[in-house]
Write the structure tokens for this entry.
Amino acid sequence: MPAIRACLEHRHSYVRRNAVLAIYTIYRFVTAKILNFVTTFIWNKQEMLYWILISTTCLLVLVSVVTGIVMADRPPFNGTR
């Protein structure tokens, strides 16, 4: 992720474009895998309790992954600028 982040600030537009496409590809791949997992699990477990549990877990994982991509290599905020 540091390499992609560095490319987002590169002086050439094609490098920045490729960095954005790389992030989009990673996001699309992770999203597709999670949705496939949830769909398979729901079809295997027809009970409502399992559906609610896995949906909540999936949403938390997805938010965590997206937050990790966005916040990669940022220094922690310590209250000063």
Summary: Residues 1 and 68 are 10 Å apart (CA to CA).
